[in-house]
Specification:
With 354 residues, this protein is mostly helical. The chain is built from 14 helices and two strands. The chain crosses the membrane at residues 255-276, 307-325.
């Protein structure tokens, strides 16, 4: 018997790491008080970063900062054109037309407008998104138990990612509002330092959080799709596409699977979250508007403007984010989840073993 439920969970649940192992640790004899020697089961990894520890979550959060902050900043030119297609479709007719007009009016440097709030905002979002996802995944798994964790794993991915994104969007909202205002309102402000005080003077703190509800509408479905689709795609790729077990794959081969699964997930993410993304872009451009007013103004067709640009952007973005995040785990030698397998106890219940 293991002394705690946590150790048993870490040993047997489908999120445990292949590097995770159980070692026996002999406690020193307490002869002074006449106590007997006890043998405990202790969790250990090769580098002492234990799955579910504070250090593990902190490094996962750091991986989230890099994966979201760097990728979103690299995509600023495409994001800028996408936002302009959404808020001014009469002027910006297509992706190519949007790039040409932007360079003609603002020069090549104009394509980098909004890079600072993008980097800060999405770094904070990445910290909460990936860090809290790992926290909630273990928390909900603990509540469900080993067998139900396997049976309800898709629901677990959905619940953990939605919970994490709720907090991530609160962290993102202020900088997202600043970014969109800089990118879509010519002449309003060119830098973060110029835009923030101007927005605060006009609308107060509300200027930075008025988009949080449509942001939840956009990002929570997006993140639920991003994590659940990724997790299940990885599982299916190793089961049906990769010719050998994950344990026999090199780290490079595993990262290729991560990238492919991330891109597939990104395409679906872009589609489910695009209407809300259009509302957020227009809402942050116009002072005094509400989400309902913007939705009525755009109409059923208007909310899908810029979808192709967003699929390209989000597909690439999601693939790179998962690749960077998994690479950070490899670099720091963190426990990395293997595709889940049915617990032995459940196999016995279902009569799948002798």
């Amino acid at each position: 018997m293991y002394p705690t439920a946590l150790t048993q969970l870490a040993r047997g649940n489908p999120f445990s790491s292949p590097l995770f192992n159980i070692q026996k640790v002999e406690e020193p004899k307490q002869s002074l008080h006449g106590q007997k020697t006890r043998t405990l089961a202790a969790a250990a990894t090769s580098d002492d970063v234990v799955f579910g520890s504070s250090k593990y979550y902190a490094l996962c959060g750091f991986g989230g900062i890099l994966s979201c902050g760097l990728t979103h900043t690299a995509m600023v030119p495409l994001d800028l054109v996408k936002c302009r297609l959404q808020v001014d479709p009469e002027k910006f007719k297509s992706i190519g037309n949007g790039f040409r007009l932007t360079v003609r009016e603002d020069g090549v440097r104009g394509l980098a407008k909004g890079w600072a709030p993008t980097f800060i905002g999405y770094s904070m979002q990445g910290l909460c998104k990936f860090g809290f996802y790992e926290v909630f995944k273990v928390f909900y798994s603990d509540l469900l138990g080993e067998e139900n964790t396997y049976l309800w794993r898709t629901s677990l991915y959905l619940a953990a990612s939605a919970s994490a994104e709720f907090f991530a969007d609160i962290a993102l909202a202020p900088m997202e509002a600043v970014k969109v205002r800089i990118q879509t309102k010519p002449g309003y402000a060119n830098t973060l330092r110029e835009c923030v005080p101007k927005m605060y003077a006009e609308e107060g703190v509300w200027a930075f959080y008025k988009g949080v509800v449509p942001l939840w509408m956009r990002q929570i479905p997006y993140t639920m799709m991003k994590f659940s689709c990724f997790e299940r795609t990885v599982e299916l790729l190793y089961k049906h596409a990769v010719p050998k077990p994950r344990s026999e794959c090199t780290k490079s081969e595993q990262l290729v699977v991560t990238f492919v699964a991330g891109y597939i997930a990104g395409v679906f993410c872009a589609i489910v979250s695009h209407p809300a993304d259009s509302v957020v872009s227009v809402l942050n451009k116009e002072s005094g508007s509400t989400a309902t007013q913007v939705l009525k103004k755009l109409g059923p067709k208007g909310v899908w403007k810029g979808l192709v640009a967003r699929i390209i952007m989000i597909g690439t973005l999601t693939a790179l984010q998962w690749f960077i995040y998994d690479s950070v785990k490899v670099y720091f030698r963190l426990p990395r989840p293997a595709p889940p397998e049915m617990p032995e106890s459940l196999k016995k219940k279902l009569g799948l073993t002798e």
